[in-house]
Amino acid sequence: MTVDSLIADIDWDHIKNVMALHWVQVLVEFIPQLHPFQKELSARFRYAPIVRHHMCPGRKLLSSLWAQILRERLRMKVCCTLSKILKNRPGKMVNPPKAL
Questions:
Q1: CA 31, CA 39: separation in Å to the nearest integer?
Q2: Which residues contact 94 (CB under 8 A, 6 or more apart)?
């Protein structure tokens, strides 16, 4: 396997089409006059020729689970750091905020 063989395996036309759709998605999200096209645009991401792999219906993405775990870890680190900063101040105490 070489760099050239990896580059040759990339479907550049597909990459260009997906990138173009993402730009259209940005425009649709930020230009109120284009909001009526959101459903049609979303459908284009879910069907051929753009989609390559379908997820099973009802299955959740692991990325959202990982994002939740990372947010919780960040919250705890921030609370721990604040507690250390305020430790030498009498009468000051930091309670961890509620989970997001």
A1: 15
A2: 79, 82, 83, 86
Question: How large a percentage of the chain has pLDDT more than 70?
Answer: 73
Two structure tokens written together for 59: 């299955």
pTM: 0.49
Structure tokens that stand for 23 in this block? 């730009």
pLDDT of amino acid 38: 92
The reply to whether 75 and 49 lie within a common domain is no
The answer to whether 44 touches 50, Cβ cutoff 8 Å, is yes
DSSP letter string, 58-90: TPPPHHHHHHHHHHHHHHHHHHHHHHHHHTTST
* Least confident range of 44-48, 63-67, 95-99: 95-99
Instruction: Give the residue with greater pLDDT, 31 vs 59.
Output: 31
Is the domain of 33 the same as that of 48?
Answer: yes
Q: Are residues 67 and 83 in the same domain?
A: yes
